[in-house]
Amino acid sequence: MALLNFKKKDARAEKTVAPEVEAFLRDYSIEVMPRTAEKVENFRDLLPEGTRVYIAHIEGTPIDDMVATAKRLNADGYPVMPHFPARIIKDKATLADWIARYQGEADVKQALLLAGGVAQPHGDFDSSMQLMETGLFDEAGFERLHVAGHPEGNRDIDADGSMTNVTAALKWKNDFQSRTDAQMAIATQFAFDAKPIIAWADDLAAQGITLPVHIGIAGPAKLQTLIKFAIACGVGPSLKVLQKRAMDVTKLLLPYEPTDVVGALAAHKAAHPGFNITNVHFFPLGGIKTNATWAIDTGGASTAPANT
Fold first, then answer.
1. Which of 38, 143, 168, 216 is deepest in the core (most CB within 10 A)?
2. What interhelical angle do 92-106 and 63-75 show, nearest 10?
């Protein structure tokens, strides 16, 4: 069991935690950006030891800031997984430089490879598959590569609203793992309704895609904030969960918490141990401290060093 350096009383002592939720939140990960990480005085006060921390690379963020954030988190004892957005990487030489800097300055051994939310590529790369085909991550000895998943589709990839292209890409990545030594998983966009998430995950398994799924969950935040991000990120059917909540005046001003979706997924996992969703990945849209506190209060204090 991981240790927490809390100065205040652990809220779990006053809150009953469902064992299936505690099990589901074990080894959760969380995402930060350099500018949000700067606001955190001490990550050890917020995150269990060994929590995997993704570092989102937004267009315009200097690589110096990304590497500095990775170095800080690694020094604090957190496995770091920076984003490598294909469309903002100019060429193979730039990719090699980023990899070398992350390894040499921050001992990074993991990466999330994705196309990136940029309409026009800045250079030679358009997709995460092209990054993988360079062979640079294998040559550098990266231990783990994660790729993006979209439980409710992605209109930038499938303009017709289908899952045709996103599923084909995941099949390619699944085959890539089969023919290489890469340890891989799918880290998904966030969603708010368990039913379409479960249906999507089951469909992947039915199509022979065996990569474990780290499901994206939006952390606690103001309802208006979540709706804004959900629309911007193309969240589909489960957006109705937020819209329905917005129509309830008794809940309109209350902060959203992912209790229902996490609880439903945890119950499904407990009833179906072979279910391919293995981990939770948090998007702290309402703030890192708010998200981390919720996760711990809800059972995430049992997090051990991530190994999936």
1. 216
2. 30
**CB within 8 A of 216, min separation 6: which ones?**
187, 188, 189, 190, 191, 281, 282, 283
Question: What whole-number distance in Å separates Cα of residue 285 and Cα of residue 32?
Answer: 10
Q: How far apart are CA 150 and CA 265, in angstroms?
A: 16
In the numeric block, the tokens 């979706």 are attached to: 261
Is 4:295 a contact under the CB 8 Å cutoff? Answer: no
End-to-end CA distance of the chain: 16
Q: Which domains does the chain have, with CATH numbers?
A: 11-302 (3.20.20.220)
**What's 127's DSSP letter?**
S
**DSSP secondary structure code for residue 10 in this structure:** P
Asked if 163 contacts 131 with a C-beta cutoff of 8 angstroms, the reply is no
Question: Can you give 198-228 as a three-state secondary structure string?
Answer: HHHHHHHHHCCCCCCEEEEEECCECHHHHHH
Question: By 3-state DSSP, what share of the chain in percent is helix, strand and coil, each rounded to 5?
Answer: 45, 15, 40
63-115 pLDDT tens trace? 999 999 999 999 999 999 999 999 999 999 999 999 999 999 999 999 999 99
Alpha carbons 252 and 198: distance in angstroms, whole number: 27
Partners of 113 in the beta sheet?
84, 147
* Contact between residue 291 and residue 284 where contact means Cβ atoms under 8 Å apart: yes
Which of 303, 159, 167, 137 is closest to 234 using CA atoms? Answer: 159
Tens of pLDDT, residue by residue over 199-218, are 999 999 999 999 999 999 99
* Axis-axis angle for helices 259-271, 194-206 (nearest 10): 40
Confidence (pTM): 0.88
CA 213 to chain centre: 10
Rounded distance between C-alpha atoms, residue 156 and residue 126, angstroms: 12
Let me know: does 29 contact 214? Beta carbons within 8 Å: yes
Distance CA 290, CA 10 (A): 15
